[in-house]
Amino acid sequence: MADMTEDEIALAFRRRVQLQALCHRVGQSVPAHVVMRFRKAGTWDREITQPIPQTLLPVLTQTDHPLRMSLPDGPLVVVVEDNTRGIIDVSEHLLSHDANIRVASLKHFLTAQSNDECWASPFVLDLLKRNADALSREDESIWIGAGLALRDAIDCDFRVNCAGVRQASRLRFEESYQEYLSKVIRPRARCFEHDRPPVWNPAEEAEQIRVNFEEWSSLDDLGMALSRYLDFCGYLPLAGELSAGTLIAAWEIRHSGHDIWHAVWKWTESCQSVLAQYHAAHALLEHPHWIRRDESERLINSVRDIISSSEADSICTEAPLWQLRAHLLQHYQVHLEAAVPGLNSEVVATSACWMAEMVARLFHAAPDHVKKGCEFLLTEVLPLSWRRWLMARSRMTPSPLRVANLYAPFIWGDALLATAVRRFADFPECEARDDYRTFLVTRLTSAVYVGSLRVVGRSSAAYAFELPVSPSDLGLPDAPTASENAEAARQVLAARLAIEAGTGLKDLLSELRELPDGLSTFLCAGLRCWPVDRSHADSAVRDLLNDNDWRRTVFHRLPLETLDKLISFLMDWQLQQDEEWLVRLPQLLAFECECADEPERRDLLLFATTVSAMAADVASPVARLLVGPKRSEIARQFDGWRQTTREVARDSEPWLAARVRAFLGTIENIL
Questions:
Q1: Number of CB atoms found within 10 A of residue 114's CB
Q2: How many Å is the maximal CA-CA distance in the chain?
Q3: Inter-residue long-range contacts of 294-303, CB under 8 Å, 24+ positions, other chains counted
Q4: Which of 425, 445, 586, 650 to pair with 25, CA 20 to 30 A apart?
Q5: pTM, whole model, 2 decimals?
C-alpha cells in the first residue's frame, strides 16, 4: 500500500466495502437497481452480465403477444412458456444494459395514462416523459442516473403498488403480493410528496367540483356521470351542493324523461365499489320525488344494511366490504399523521379517505380476501399504527373529518343515518315506514351517544355525517312504537349539541365530578370527537385543570375507558396550546399518576404522561415519576413500554425514530 496514491487507496477501500455489502447475497440474485447504485457511485467498475431472455423485448412491446399472460394492468408482466410462468418486474428493466429493453420498459409504464383507471401517478408519468431521451442513450453515465430515478419513483408510487397488489392477487403469487401490499399498507413519507387525491380540500375546491358537474351532467349516460363523480370526489361523504344527488339533479335537467330511480340502481349493480350504494341511497333520500313508492322498500333495506354494516354480527352480505373500509380509513388517518406531520388536517383526512377507497377496491373482486384483510388490519396493522401515532402526535388544526376518521371511522353509515333522519318527513308512505322510523331513532340515539354522529347547530354541513338540525325538529314524528326512543334521542341530541357549540363547556366538564358512569362516558366520547374550538375550550379547560379538587375527583373516579377518552380530548387540546400549557399538561398527568392507588389506573396515567410528554418534547414529567416514591412500581411498567417503543421506532420514519431516541436518551441520562 506504500506505493499506492490516496485516490487508489480510497478506490480500494470503496471496493472492499462494496464487496462486504454484497457478500451475504452470494448464491442469490442481486437486483439490478442495487448493482447500478454501486456502479453510479463509482464503487463497482467490473463488467456486469445480465442474462436477457430473447422473448423479453417482444413480450414487453406487444400486449397481445402469445406468450404474454392476460392480466390487469400494472408493473408486472407474466411470460408463459412450456407451462412455466415467468414473472417480470418491469421497473428493474429500466436499468437493463440493452437500450431497447429500457425504452420498452418505459413505454410499458406510459400506457398507464391511457387506461380508464390510471395506475401511475401524474408525477411518475411526467418523470417518465422527461427521462425518455436519457434512458435511450448508450452513455452509461447518463442512462443509469435516469433509470435509478425512475425506478425509485415507481417503487414508492402508491398507485403503481395498488396495481401490483391487484396483479399479484390474480396470479396468486404470494411473494409479490406481500411485497406490494406492504408498500400499500404502510407507504413511506416520500410517497406523498408528488401525489394527491383529486380533491383534498372540498371547501377550497368547491368551484372546481361545480365546473366538473357541468361537464358530467352533459354526458348521455347517467351511470358514466356518476362513475366520474365517484372517482373524482366520491370517496368523501359530501353534503349539499357537492353531493351526488346534486349531480343527478343537474343531469336530469338536461335529460328530461328518464327514470332516475332505475338508472341509479342500474349504476350500483355495475360499479366495482360499494360506495355506489351509499351515493345512490343518499341521493334518493335527498330527492324523495325520485323514489318509486311501489319499490321504496328496496331503498329502506339498502339504508338499513349500510347503517348496520359496522356491526360484527351484521347479516348484510356486503358488510365485510364496509368494515374493511372502516379499518383502512382509521389506519391511514393515523399512519399519515405519523408519517407526514405538519400537513393540513383536512388534507390528511381526505387523503386517508382516498387511500382507503383505493385499497378497498382491490378486494372487490377477491371477496375471499376481505375477511382475512379485516383480521390482518385489526390484529397486526392497527395496533402498530396507533402506537406510532401516539408517539408522533403533533399539532393539527380542528377538522370534523379528521376526528371522524380517528374515532368513528364508519363515516358512510353515520352519513346515511344523518340524512335519513333529516329527510324522514319527506319519505313516501309505505308499509315498512313505522319500522323504518323505529330503526332510525334507535340508531340515532346510539350513534350520538358514542360520539360518532356530529350534531351541528347550523342550517348546512360540509359532510353528510354532520346533522344540521335542532333536537326539537328531528323529522321523526312520534309513534306508539317509537315515542319513548324519540324522546331519548332528543335528550341525547340536546346534550351533544351543547358539546359541539362549546359555549357551556366548563359546566359540562364540571359535572364530570358527579355524573353517573353512563352519562360521563357519553360526555367524554362527545368531547373526544369534537374538533376542539380554542375560543371556547381554552379558558374552561385551563380553569378546571388548575382546580386540584376537580382534577383529583375526575381522574380517580371515572371508569378507565371513560378516562381514556377524556385524556384523548385533553391531548388534542394540549397540541393546540402555546409553550406554557403544552408542557404543563404532562406535569399534571404525572402528578395524578403518582397519586393513583389502583395499578390499572396508574398504568393508564403513566402511559398518558409519557405520550403527552413526548408530544411536548419534554422528559422531566416521566423522569420525575421514575425517581419518585412509587418508582419501583412505575419503573416495571415503563421498562416494558420503553422496549416496545424502541422496536416500534426502529422501522418508523426517521424523524419519529429520532424523537424517540432523544426522549428515551434524555430520561436514561437523568436516571
A1: 8
A2: 103
A3: 295/261, 296/427, 296/428, 296/430, 296/432, 297/430, 297/431, 297/432, 298/265, 300/430, 300/432, 300/436, 302/277, 303/416, 303/420, 303/436
A4: 650
A5: 0.88
